[in-house]
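Why does this matter for the project? Reviewers at the last site visit asked to see concrete outputs rather than summary tables. In response, this paragraph embeds two records directly. Each consists of the residue sequence and, immediately after it, the corresponding structure tokens. Nothing has been edited or filtered.
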Amino acid sequence: MAVLERHLTLYKRLWRASLFSSFLLPLLFLVSIGLGVGGYVGTVEGVSYVEWIVPGVLASTAFQMAVGECTYSVLGEFKWTRGAHAMFATRVSAWDMVRGWMLYIVFRVEVAAVVFLAVVAAFGVLASPWAAVTLVVVGLLAVAVAAPVSAFSASIDHDSYFALLFRFVMIPSTLFAGVFFPVEQLPALVRPLAYASPLWHGVELCRAATLGVAPPWPVWVHGGYLLAFGVAGLWWAAFSFRKRLQD
């Protein structure tokens, strides 16, 4: 909780810098793609394109926030500001740092998700009261993504590796994880890559909730995949943090 308090104190001073990326950009994206392009697309799987894309934008926002927040910020704590070393010199352990950081990421994602849902609900885009469940989904998705990315960031020595992460992981996942079009439209050879992405599972759970329908796979499979990803990522993050601090 002390680690969470530290991150919240820093965010209280820097929150204005995240207004555009966390709150305005997803809404602008929804208007331009969901309403603009949606006027030409029409319906997808029996619903209007804007209703279909809302959960995708919500999940992809959580995904991108988790990736973005866990790159330079985590590396900087070890290499530039040495904040992690300062915490480690106290009673705070590496595992405490990981858990406190994950709580902070979930907090950031949940605040953005609540604002997003409130705005789209005001426009009558949400088709089911089950849309509230998306808050649980994006929180689980955030941990499933933030934990392994934090581990990766703690294990590298140069920020040039982040370009590879953005180019070959974040962007392809956003484009081909069912956010903008059904994964079934992808070639059969490429589809397993989409299924391997935590984002696809998050998108499908969010879409099932906002539309009030069943997801393509059982809920426990989607949720279990995200949970397994998160648990493995937390173990890797704790190992990477501890190794970096000892080195």
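We now turn to the second protein, recorded in exactly the same manner.
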Amino acid sequence: MIGISRTTAVRYGLAGAVAALAVAGSGVTANAATAKETAARGPVTVSEGCGYLGWGKYRHCDGGTGSTVMLDVEDFFGNIFHYCVGPGTTDLQPVIRWRVVGAWWNGGTRCIPGYYGPA
């Protein structure tokens, strides 16, 4: 050992572990509060999260603001289309001819919900 005894090293190690647990415990409390706030905003179940849900469905979670977002939607052949969605779940499949395999937010906001055509 370099300058300290084994007993002193163990004490420092235990003190560091206790400090780390205290910091981690405060984060757990903050995460629990955030989860309560999210639950109060609207019913989002575990089986239906936010974003692309599969099978041509996209859920926009807006936290009650009523915002709209522009999506890039990809079909089976890799073609990209623009589609604007509002809060809640939107079925993208009826508008796009081939099977939808993915959808993601492209950064656009404040659009009128609906199909905007190929990218």
